[in-house]
Design a protein that fits this description.
The chain is an alpha+beta fold. The chain is built from four helices and ten strands; from the N terminus they run H-E-E-E-E-E-H-H-H-E-E-E-E-E.
Length: 268
């Protein structure tokens, strides 16, 4: 009888061990919070993602330092940490998505599979994110990931350096974008790359001209302004002013522009 109980106990422990191992193997890293700023994982679309912890930063620009739609500079609190695409989604990733869901490429294009996909509108990119269980970053999340707690003007610091991003003075091999992941020296504080230049990046929010009035101190969800959506980061056609991390742009969500791309986010 005692031997039978021992055998049963050992069997249960083995089963629990196997179940625990299976659970660990099934765990999806993007569904769990990161431990350290810049921690890197592989996301559900096989793209790299970096951890951006909760925190506070100064969003916007002082009067005279940026566009009227950036004023007033004010403190914003990001209440939850989130995973952010280390780079913009590539043409190669877009092809894999289209094949997986059984749709055509549409107007999407890029100079190569490792370049950011462009000519994708807001509905296109939100469908991509949704398929993989992700979302577009909110505008405040995007700016926080680009600027960090110190509120840098550019992802790498406060001084413009044309050699740290894709811009009119530093164009890619086809006269527009560089492959994603270029310019490691231009990384933001959380390890995100190409947040200045290369392509404008769609955000989740509807555009609001008065977004920076300071009336939304937590995460800045934003208010509606017709149907236009926010774009951030500048592109290969933008100079130093256009590539500032506080710079804001907008576009009709149906617009498939050759300078518009995106990166994904996920809040555990």
């Amino acid at each position: 009888m005692l031997l039978d109980l021992v055998v049963i106990a050992v069997s249960m422990l083995l089963l629990l061990g196997v179940a625990g191992l299976s659970s660990a193997q099934d765990a999806k890293p993007w569904e769990q919070p990161g431990m350290n700023v810049g921690e890197e994982i592989t996301g559900p679309d096989e793209g790299k993602m970096v951890w951006v912890p909760a925190g506070k930063f100064t969003m916007g620009s002082p009067a005279g330092k940026g566009g009227s739609n950036e004023v007033l500079a004010h403190r914003v609190r990001i209440t939850k940490g989130f995973w952010l695409g280390k780079c913009a989604v590539t043409l190669g990733q877009w092809k894999a998505y289209c094949q997986a869901v059984g749709i055509g490429m549409g107007e999407a294009r890029a100079p190569g599979d490792n370049h950011p996909v462009v000519c994708v509108n807001w509905d296109d990119v939100t469908a991509y994110c949704r398929y993989y269980g992700m979302v577009l970053p909110k505008e405040a999340q995007w700016e926080y990931a680009a600027r960090g707690p110190k509120g840098h003007v550019y992802p790498w610091g406060n001084e413009w350096d044309a050699n740290k991003c894709c811009n009119p003075a530093n164009l890619g091999p086809e006269g527009d974008t560089f492959p994603v992941g270029s310019f490691s020296e231009g990384a933001s504080w959380c390890g995100a790359l190409n947040m200045a230049g290369n392509v404008w990046e769609w955000c989740w929010d509807k555009y609001d001209e008065g977004y920076h009035t300071g009336s939304h101190p937590f995460d800045l969800r934003g208010a509606a302004c017709d149907e236009c959506r926010v774009l951030r980061g500048g592109s290969w056609i933008n100079d130093a002013s256009g590539c500032r991390s506080a710079n804001r742009n907008l576009s009709d969500p149906s617009n498939r522009d050759s300078s518009h791309g995106f990166r994904c986010a996920r809040t555990p």
